[in-house]
Amino acid sequence: MPSRKFADGEVVMGRWPGSVLYYEVQVTSYDDVAHLYTVKYKDGTELALKESDIRSQSSFKHRKSQSSSSSPSRRSNTRSRSRSRSPGRPAKGRRRSASQSREHKDDKKKTIQEASLALPVLLKPSENNTKRYNGEPETTEKNDTSCIILEQKLKPDLEIKRVLEQYSLRSRKDDKKKEEIYSEKKTFVAVKPVEKVPTKTKELEFGGRIGTFMLILFLPATVLYLLLMCKQDDPSLLNFPPLPALESLWEWRVFGIFLLWFFLQAVFYLLPIGKVVEGLPLSNGRKLEYRINGFYAFILTAAAIGVLLYFQFELHYLYDHFMQFAVSAAAFSLALSIYLYVRSLKAPEEELAPGGNSGYFIYDFFTGHELNPRIGSFDLKYFCELRPGLIGWVVINLAMLLAEMKIHNLSVPSLSMILVNSFQFLYVVDALWNEEAVLTTMDITHDGFGFMLAFGDLVWVPFVYSLQAFYLVGHPTTITWPVAAAITVLNCIGYYIFRSANSQKNNFRRNPADPKLANLKFIPTATGKGLLVTGWWGFVRHPNYLGDIIMALAWSLPCGFNHILPYFYVIYFICLLVHREARDEHHCKQKYGLAWERYCQRVPYRIFPYIY
């Protein structure tokens, strides 16, 4: 095993990823497995660097001393020459003026060289501008003409520089030394991004190993408890439901129907329809391709359901065996999680999730060890994120609507059931129509695919998010039209905030130079990305979460106020989003450093304006 070169606490020069610029950093730790140093820049940014990207400060001082235009030996030879004046030499006074002229030209040449080295950065606003990041004055307007003006000012000086270099009296040896010193700076514009390898996860979330182990047991128990409560005549919290017999929770026919549903959605996913887009760059710079056809899969599913109803298939079968379907989905998600963890043990280091590489079995099993597990071009995480669970949610709501009509002998569904189905139908259709936006979420870019996402996508979303519709079947609630109108307005407000905020974020991430976004201001960061400080993102830090919570409340209000059970979703969702916001805050502070602190000063409220 190679020994480490730099000690903890040592101040060295570290190269910024994606460039050849070196900055003063302090070594904080060293990973013996990945052979990476964790260094801290002066602005608080922490990055993992290879040993080849770190140099001692003395090496830079040594290089600087080599850049002298004349060596001591040359100066001594000049002093030892004869003082007699040859006929071709100018007068003494003229010699002094000529020397001063050369010094003046040298000074001017030096200034031009420094300016020319800075020019590529100034002429490319989209590149990583570390001067602005470190607190110097900056502009957030995209159509900035300062770069063009500077180029025009430097053009005559650059021409002088070219002439001076052509007729330089310096020796070729000195020119070669200077060329070696600046060779990296001259080529930094075309340099390839540094390949970053994920390091071991040091900061454990969700309560660490004990917390994740408890969640693996607690999440299925919570789903079982909620569904049993909805079946009771009095679903109050103090009225704990009796535990059912184990044999009543499992039926192979139900499990077969669930498998048929899962693989039907997989077939729709593989159909060569819809556009293919690239995701965000991974840690190694590679971009994965994704086929965007979720909305087409939804249309094909709706057609298949229509055919079943035409042939008088009783869709309320889902309601009658709802508990068994939930248990089947939980068993399948557990089996899928085991498969995902086993295959991740053979995955390359650069394909592991940054948050699920702790080395602890339980923690990595829960959070997901591999970031983007694929079977060929079939992306398992991306498929489960929107297809079986989200589309299944709408199918379950429809089954509850039909069950309500059959059980209560209604010719039309109740107004409460119509509102719940309509609101949640709109939410699912919006997610599938804007499917490409999911590629920028934390689930895709940061979290691995393990039990947390597998259980959440296949069990929690379809069987807990449909809790209001399931509740209304056994506990019908009557609401008036004015109340229904008020709830509809509330849902529309939440949806507008949610969709417009997400659209602003996704469009800005995809193409910050889009003329349609010219009115948006942002804080530049050292990563090359910008933090929006206008629009919804200048109102609160997570306006999409605010819209989500408002919609969740609107989904629960049609159930009335007799019991708190239908409000479990909005209570859970607030806790979920507050926790996720804390995770976002931690990751962004590490990623953006000083720029994130400036953003928090500019936008002080996290989710709820003037409250939190």
Automatic annotation (TrEMBL):
The UniProt similarity line reads: Belongs to the ERG4/ERG24 family.
Instruction: Output the PROSITE patterns linked to this UniProt entry.
Output: STEROL_REDUCT_1, STEROL_REDUCT_2
Give the metabolic or biological pathway: Steroid biosynthesis; cholesterol biosynthesis
What is the protein name stated in its UniProt record? Delta(14)-sterol reductase LBR
Q: Native species of this protein? A: Cinclus mexicanus
Tell me the Pfam families matching this sequence: ERG4_ERG24 (PF01222), LBR_tudor (PF09465)
Q: Which reaction does it catalyse?
A: 4,4-dimethyl-5alpha-cholesta-8,24-dien-3beta-ol + NADP(+) = 4,4-dimethyl-5alpha-cholesta-8,14,24-trien-3beta-ol + NADPH + H(+); 5alpha-cholest-8,14-dien-3beta-ol + NADPH + H(+) = 5alpha-cholest-8-en-3beta-ol + NADP(+); 4,4-dimethyl-8,14-cholestadien-3beta-ol + NADPH + H(+) = 4,4-dimethyl-5alpha-cholest-8-en-3beta-ol + NADP(+)
| Chain positions covered by the region annotation Disordered | 53-143
Say if the entry is tagged with keyword Acyltransferase. Answer: no
What superkingdom heads the lineage? Eukaryota
- How is this protein annotated for GO cellular component? endoplasmic reticulum membrane; nuclear inner membrane
**Extent of Basic residues compositional bias:** 76-97
The answer to whether keyword Transmembrane helix applies is: yes
Q: What is its EC number?
A: 1.3.1.70
Q: Name one GO molecular function term.
A: Delta14-sterol reductase activity
